[in-house]
UniProtKB/TrEMBL annotation:
This is Adhesion G protein-coupled receptor D2. The chain crosses the membrane at residues 716-741, 753-770, 782-807, 819-838, 858-886, 907-932, 938-960. InterPro entries: ConA-like_dom_sf, CTDL_fold, GAIN_B, GAIN_dom_sf, GPCR_2-like_7TM, GPCR_2_secretin-like, GPS, PTX_dom. PANTHER family: ADHESION G-PROTEIN COUPLED RECEPTOR (PTHR12011), ADHESION G-PROTEIN COUPLED RECEPTOR D2 (PTHR12011:SF58). It holds the Pfam family Pentaxin. It comes from Oryzias latipes. SUPFAM superfamilies: C-type lectin-like, Concanavalin A-like lectins/glucanases, Family A G protein-coupled receptor-like. GO terms for biological process: cell surface receptor signaling pathway. Residues 113-319 form the Pentraxin (PTX) domain. GO terms for cellular component: plasma membrane. It is a multi-pass membrane protein.
Amino acid sequence: MAGILVTALMLFLIKKVCEGEPTVGGPDRVVDQHGTNKLVYITSQWALQLVNDSLPFSRANSFCRSQFASLLTLNESENHEDLLELLRQTGTRSSVWVGQSSKPAAPSKQYLQISALSFPKESHEGFARVNISFPALSAISMCVRVQWDRDWNDVSTIFSYAAPVFTNEFQLRGQLDVQGRVLLALIIHGKHLPYKASFPNDGAWHHICVTWRRSGNHWAIYVDGESKDTGSGTDTNRDIHGDGILILGQDQDSFGGNFTEPFFGNITDLNVWTMGLESRHIRALNSCSTLSQDMLFKWSLDRISSHPAVKEVQTSLVCPAAYPQVELQDCRTLQGWTNQLPAWGQTECSNLLPFVCRSTKERYLKMKQMSESQSVRPSAFMNHLMMLSNRTQPILAQLPTDLNNLAQASVLLNISAQALEHTPQGELQPADMVSLIQLLSLTADIPIQPPTPLENSSQDGVLELSQHFVSVADSIICDENRLKWQAIKEVVNGPMDVVKSIDRMVTHLSPHLMSQTDQLTITSPNIKLELQQQKLQEGSKVSSFCGPDTESHAHLDCISVPPQKIQDLHSNGFYKITLVNTWYGSLRPLFNPEENITMVPTVTDGSQRYLGTFLGSSVVSTTVLGDDQPVSMAVNFQLQHRVENSLGTVYDPVCAFWDFDLSPETGGWWNTKGCKVVSRHYGHTVCYCNHTTNFALLLQVYEAQRSPENEKALQVLTFIGCGVSMCGLLFTFILFIAVGVPKSDRTTVHKNLIVALGVAELLLMCSDWASDNRAACFLVTALLHLFFMASFSWMLVEGLLLWSKVVAVNISEDRRMKLYYIIGWGVPVLIVGLTLAVSVDKYKAEDHCWLNVQTDTIWAFVGPVVFVLAVNAVVLCRVVMVTVSSAHRRAKMLSPSSASKMQTFDLTWAVTRPVLILLPVLGLTWLCGVLVHLSVVMAYVFIALNSFQGLYIFLVYAVYNSEVRNAIKRIKEKRKALSFTNCSQPTSFLHSQRVPVSSWSRSPPTPSSPETSETSGANSSTSMSLVIKNESFRKESFVSFSMKQASENQVVQLTGFKPSGC
């Protein structure tokens, strides 16, 4: 019994595991709540989804795009076995749609230079013969471009086809009516059809196509892409005879001769097909596209022989609008398999077939996980959506494939917009965003019927749908969802997918949105959409568009089409244009800041160091629709810089656009082709691009550096300053040792600071020579780090020592010096050691011997330095406050009232002067380093103050130090005494000659020993008096003021030295 239970438990666990992770290579059948039947075959890399709901090719492609997948492409050998296995396991025997393996050919240019034949009125004999062999035809289509002579009113034959057995087999002729229009008529099998199709006799080029099919005897005449006349049921039901002659510009009364009814004007671009063209083909041919399928003759003067009166000329054709060439061809299908190889076919794109979508395995599994989580535990947004739609299942969890009418899409968008309003801000979940992005993608591709007059209610419905569309899109790309965009990056390419859906939606709906108005604006907090329509015959208007107004009312985000470019459209045959302008204000935070935009730096003179490129503005876009078809045009735009200026960095703007074709698998990328900067300003940049799309500013970030000349001058100044500083430090150290300066904690601290600073500056001078050797440079970097840290540590000790002289600190001198040594040498060794242990690979900079400022390693130096400077600044402020306030009080007590102001000023300066001289010793001049990047002048000031720091110390501690000078004086007097007398007690003699710098009373000073130069024996007094000699008062003037005694037998020196002459 126990064994049965264990077995059952194991089977249950295996079942759960298999349900949780689809088996590689196994089919996974999914049927959603809308009845969409999808069979998924998962491989090690891909997920192939067979959708059994039959759709036209365009809708199949749209559905795959909404699933963040693509229609399975053609000729991908790695997919053949997977696709075969999927179709075999699912038992699919019908054809399925497949996509193109390469990008469809780009639409033809709108300006086409082409050779033409000119038939002048001077000769009625002109003709041209097309030298091709005609088979018997059950269908035929002929297209030609003609430029009618405006002064010719009689019947003219554009082309005539005569067969040996029947002369008037197929012919197109025209004549002018009383209203000045050219009427066209066909002759088929000798039957003359009525003059009905027409075009204005305006001297312009017109595109004429005629088609005929034996099936039903259907015929049609198209002018400039539009059907003008059509019919069926002629009397004779037979093929067009073969082996005939095709003549341009003349009617053949006999086979190949007896020409009558000549044509006057120009003819070009004659093409013949052995099939009946459809309306979609002819509209595309009118736009200068080509169709090679079943083509019998393609326009070429090499295959035409003409009469001498007919001249060859070059002409410029204006194509009304771009038209995708893929619409001209039948769409590709997979019909089956032959010997394990795919059998490809073609069929009408409007046919209904199943199809296969392909996505990555990771993307499919992530989407499946999100869908299942919504089904089990709907989010707050989905709960609101179900409540508003009276559903019990998440309505957007699985969108139907047959979302093909505006009414259904409008309802979904409406309740989605209402649910978003009821959902608290920030509670929209990643799965909700994915579902909404899918809904936008499907809605944007809903097919729209050709423009026809609509009822007012229908117009209102289209406008309402557009408003809901923009509202939902705004909620998705708002700044509050930037973290959620990172959560769905495995599924959605990025926020530009939403932008692309908006572009498609507006392009499809613009004919209906603008049918009753010339301007329409839809706004939301983060999106502004505006449509402007102009009739070009009324003259071009200003086409500028700006984003929402700002508080400063200046430097808006604006875009415009140059008026001359719009006027050129009118000159080229366009009747109206529609400008679709959009502003997106919240896209910049949604791009991952860690994903640096790869771009070549624009600054290459070495004056700045390139750090990276990022999006630095809003996004604006313009789409120009000429006669409801996209037209690419040049635009000007200006965008504000949306970036906070950081200290030490500069930004160089680059004009760019989002290219959806640059990296299709990731949704596109930024491109700069065709764009340039017109002018740069402090807060905005003006750009020009020679095409229309979505534009933005990319800001290239550079580390502020100096010109090579300034850099060289600063290096020379640093080298000279360090050399002078080292000499000053060396002389100071020698004097301290040689002349016998009295020993004390103060002099000990001075010596350690001199050693640390001197070694650091010596290493700094040698660092350039070590940069060529990687190991030596690394060692120099570590030693520089150590000794500069030691220098600042001893500067900190100088501050602590000064503080101890101002504030009573009950620590013995021995214990205090041990603490000072730990701070001065122990802490730097610890910091450097920990830094090397943690980040040895990122320790050194790439191009010089110093810490890497591009990583956090630099904080191992900057952090302690900032701490030292902060502490010493506090110490200095405290010392200044104590000394100045004490001096003021004493000056008021001793100075006459009439001279109090003058004496107070002099006394304040006399007390403050030695404290200010302490700035280099305390390291506070390094505060100038914070301002170095603001100006090159600050760099010179910083180097001057710190490179000559050793010279300052030499002047303060040696040249103007009374202890050093007294020690030198004692040596001189000793030598003088030894030279003139043989004294038995030179030490007592020298002691009797010592004059202390300061005393604690107005009585004559008491002697002090060299070992206790900071103390005196004034034990009988409970107060202290600091005696300062002020040379500016009078020759011999002493001032005294009281201070609280730090300890019973200790005299406090406020400054770290004894000024000479005090």
